[in-house]
Amino acid sequence: MSTGVDEDSLIEAICVCDRERARLDAMTVDRVYALWCRQKQRFGDLFTVESVIEELRLARNVPRGWSIDTVETTIFLSEHMPGVLECMHAGQVDLFHASKIREVFESFPEELITTADTRITERLQDKGRPRDWVRYLRRLADRLDPAAKEVRIAAARAARYVSFQDDEDGTGTLFARLPSEDLAACETRIDAIARSLRHQGDPRTLDQLRADTITDLITGRNQHTGVRVVVNVQVPLGVALDMSEEYCRVTGYGEIPAHTARAMLTDPRNTVRKILTDPDTGVIRGLGRRRYRPSTRQRDYIRLRDHHCRVPGCCRPIQEIDHAQAWADNGHTNTADLQGLRKLDHKLKSAPGWHYRLDHHTSELEITTPTGRTYRSGTE
Hints:
Strand order of the largest sheet: 5-4-3-6
Distance between the termini: 36 Å
Number of strands: 11
Low-confidence stretches: 285-291
Order of helices and strands: HHHHHHHHEEHHEHEEHEHEEHEEE
Structural class: alpha+beta
């Protein structure tokens, strides 16, 4: 189908739709809040929220979780964050992204919520929404109340769980919420076993092998012994010298308390690689060689530096190590020209009109799309 307009105009038209959707979300918030206020007069505080949630679920024919999120976000924005609500009316943030604000700040004291409302509003009006929205909100929350970070991480670690879901098609979903260090160890071991079996000629796909390996390990059908698992932990120098209690980071995952990192490093049952980082910049050092395939040390360095796919806004795990400047175009196999990508983004890099450039000084990735638009990673 031809629309008679160029690609950049199509992208802009889609963005206009997003802004209109945000304005419609703001209108929904206004009306849900009005409904809540009226029912509060009728029921008092006893049944108001539950009544509105159930009424909206029935009227809109949506899952109960959606209805809960809409009502809770509506009340929070309307009573605590007028600036963000104003941004919604201006089309700068939609209800989904506003709900993430509530999730991060709803437990904060009123004065800090007010400050957060001001900061977020200024950010949205000045630069627009950051690509990594939740990370931006977390960083803002940590700056406003550093003590809350400890409580947040401790609560998240305490809320670990496993759930099972029947997908009604002969399969089901196993979901586990685990501490970062355990999750990293699980992923590394499962991936190592799957790749080992693949190298031995197993005809199953890697995804099938990973799924079957989880079943083998949990049920005891096959323990897959003999596979070495290494978990990388980035440790600020002050923590390594017992001079500070800064948070450490499990490569590819999240932050962990200093005492947890120390316990991992001293436990003889663990195979943990300690990566010392600069206390001010967090920078690590690495080596490079001039050959096409990156060395094991270079691959490890890139995974430690990038944490996840470098494409702006993408938080998927790194699947492939790629030359930012293609080897055929005089690219170099050194850490300044290597980047971690997921498979889809690596393939897209070779598509006509897509151009990737890695800044050697800041390690930020700049992408220019076929429409001529440019996006950078690492910018908020």
